[in-house]
Write a structure and sequence with these properties.
- The protein is an alpha+beta fold.
- It contains 11 helices and 9 strands.
- The protein has 3 domains: 109 residues, Orthogonal Bundle (Butyryl-Coa Dehydrogenase, subunit A, domain 1), CATH 1.10.540.10; 104 residues, Butyryl-CoA Dehydrogenase, subunit A, domain 2; 147 residues, Butyryl-CoA Dehydrogenase, subunit A, domain 3 (Up-down Bundle).
């Protein structure tokens, strides 16, 4: 297992780190998150100019041709800055599905626009009853001529409020939770029959519930057989958001250690108390364990290992548990100010909590891991 980065990956990592350090301080991030759109279109264009939006796409489509490791280095540094721009929703989810399932015409039409920063997209897959089961779908799509008519509702759609295009999972055959019978459809987010209700999650991310009332959709990929493509993209994104979580954990550990060097209690800095030193070491170790599992999952993905699915599930479990440990310790050691809106610590912790629930929390992924191991 090669854990060293290439020259290009180090340059990519440094590029994102410089942007966060120079242009994305906490107050700037708060203003962006509190804005009506919930992200900065100016920053999005900067991402395009720096080539970040091209990373996972093939060179044939004008992309960088990067893999899981390239996405990892970007997401880790974005995590340290709590970047709210919809990289996951537009590039990794929407763009990932186009790359894996889209026709050549769909790829040629849309991926170039993503790379240039001209198109916002997302994947609408969650429903009220589905919880973490991505195959639990009640939204229907019925053929009508060369198109399909979609009816149903999707919830907690990342970037749903700002997306120009949606890829929607819908049932074209089979029972409610069957993996077979699921298809993907490209939908104009502003078409007649699309109703959006936007709101913000506790981490400041803007999402939307979207109702589809007789909306026309264009088939993406093969009818009834979309589940494998969906699962492949979800796996990629679980690794990516785990890298973001690692960046957040590293930021919280560093911030807590620095704070312990300055806060005084009983006439001495709290960092000199042995009990707190032990707790900070445990925070550091939880982060390092997460990093080890992240690197293992990335290597498994890029090497098409037969253990890749298990490695990804184990990583997601570790992210949930280590995030809870590190976030809780960071808040406790900062005292009452750790949960105030004015301090960045609480915002980092809220993002960790949100990442834990994406595509299934630690308990859910533990059950999946055990089922896969015992199969």
């Amino acid at each position: 297992m090669n854990l060293s980065f290439s020259e290009e990956q180090n340059m990519l990592k440094d590029s994102v780190a410089r942007f966060v350090a120079d242009q994305y301080d906490f107050e700037t991030r708060r203003k962006i998150a509190d804005s009506a759109e919930g992200f900065s279109r100016e920053n999005w264009q900067t991402f395009a100019e720096l080539g970040w939006l091209s990373i996972p796409f093939s060179e044939e489509l004008g992309g960088f041709g990067g893999g899981a490791a390239d996405t990892m280095v970007v997401m880790e540094e974005m995590g340290k800055g709590l970047v709210v721009e919809p990289f996951v929703a537009t590039v990794l989810l929407f763009g990932g599905l186009l790359s894996k399932a889209g026709s050549e015409a769909q790829q040629q039409e849309l991926i170039g626009k993503i790379i240039e920063g001209q198109l916002q997209g997302t994947f609408a897959f969650l429903e009220r009853q589905s919880r973490f089961e991505i195959a639990d779908i009640l939204t229907t799509a019925k053929a009508e001529g060369d198109s399909f008519i979609l009816n149903g509702e999707k919830t907690v759609v990342m970037n749903g409020a700002n997306a120009d295009k949606l890829i929607v999972s819908a049932r074209t055959s089979g029972a409610q939770s069957d993996e077979q019978g699921i298809s993907l459809f490209l939908v104009d987010a502003n078409a007649d029959g699309v109703e959006k209700v936007s709101y913000k999650l506790m981490d400041g991310q803007l999402v939307a519930n979207i109702k589809l009332n007789g909306v026309t959709g264009e088939l993406v990929g093969e009818q009834d057989k979309a589940f494998d493509a969906i699962q492949a993209v979800v796996n990629d994104v679980m690794v990516a958001v785990s890298a973001e979580a690692l960046g957040i954990m590293e930021k919280l550990v560093m911030t807590t250690i620095e704070y312990a060097k300055t806060r005084e209690q009983f006439g001495i800095t709290i960092g000199k108390f042995q009990a707190l030193q032990h707790r900070m070491v445990e925070m550091f170790m939880a982060g390092e364990q997460t990093k080890s599992l992240l690197y293992r999952a990335v290597c498994s993905l890029e090497g098409n290992s037969e253990d890749a699915q298990k490695d990804i599930l184990a990583l997601k479990v570790m992210v949930g548990r280590a995030g809870k440990q590190i976030g809780g310790e960071a808040i406790q050691m900062h005292g009452g100010m750790g949960i105030t809106d004015e301090l960045d610590v609480g915002h980092y912790v809220k993002r960790l909590m949100t990442i834990n629930t994406l595509f299934g929390d630690a308990d859910y992924q533990q059950q999946r891991f055990e089922a896969l191991t015992n199969a």
